[in-house]
Amino acid sequence: xxxxNLIVIGLILGVTLALRIFNIPIAxxxxxxxxxxxxxxxxxxxxxxxxxWQKATPLEAPLxxxxxxxxxxxxxxxxxxxxxxxxxxSQLAILVEWSDPxxxxxxxxxxxxxxxxxxxxxxxxxxxxxxxxxxxGNVNIWHxxxxxxxxxxxxxxxxxxxxxxxxxxxxxxRVAMPAPSDYADPNYVPAFAAKNLFALPRKSPVxxxxxxxxxxxxxxxxxxxxxxxxxEWSGSKWRVIFTRDLKAAGADMKSxxxxxxxxxxxxxxxxxxxxxxxxxxxxxxxxxxxxxxPAQTQTTGQPGASEPPVKRVVIPSPTPPxxxxxxxxxxxxxxxxxxxxxxxxxxxDWE
Length: 351
Prior knowledge:
Elements: H1 2-22, E1 33-38, E2 59-62, E3 64-65, E4 80-87, E5 91-99, E6 116-122, E7 139-145, H2 146-151, H3 158-161, H4 190-193, E8 206-211, E9 218-219, E10 228-233, E11 237-245, E12 262-269, E13 281-282, E14 286-290, H5 323-347
Parallel strand pairs: 1-4, 1-14
Antiparallel strand pairs: 2-4, 3-13, 4-5, 5-11, 6-7, 6-12, 7-8, 8-9, 10-11, 12-13, 12-14
Helix pairs in contact: 1-5
């Protein structure tokens, strides 16, 4: 009995190790689906209260504190986001809403942290590791920042936070004391000269990024920052809209094909809780499915004649682990079983 118990424990540990190493889910399902509703009108890119959004079916995505890698917080404040999606023949718009009793849209002082939200897509069609992608598969991330939204109405700097700053008078000073002044000489503003997004004038509150695993998050160059955004805080709730063309302008950005289902994930940060970087609330993968566009009416001479409607896209089943992964699992199980046998034999419990 003792031998059998140890063998069972060893096999359980081996299976657990294999699942962890190869990132194989214990169970898989079709998962929640965000349906993008087709509209013929222009998308409400700057109006979260537009009536057009009511045509879209909301999806509530639960979030939990990121605990996969450091730095992490034991608890985060954003527990869920509600998303809606609209698209027309050229663009996709996603509205994300979540509750937040505090508005944090300043990030000038080192003790200040912003509210933020992000949506993530695999650049290909298959789901990748949900935490920033993986080595052999990049993800495209759209990151809206509350302070960038505020910057669009007026750049925030130290004078914004401390408008009455001054220096004491030095009566015996022989020359005038240095004073801050605005200047744009690139010799003295290297971040501006290097086209660092944090130093350039804001064109959008959304940063377009790509990642292929932890530590690889990379901002796209300024001419590839093509995701428009708009966010407003009202009634203790943030409402943020992401808008972008369906077709990507480069290989490192997600292209959307309305005939295909693509994975989508969400993340949110509450600045009042000191959340930043990896200290965030994140969701698992959901599906983004495009509603079929209405069929065009034909002129056939018969009233009411039209093309048959296009069928809704069927959500594909999750891709099974490949052969190499399965071989790796069996190798680990074999090693664990052999080690268990050697330990039992050495202790005299094998016979």
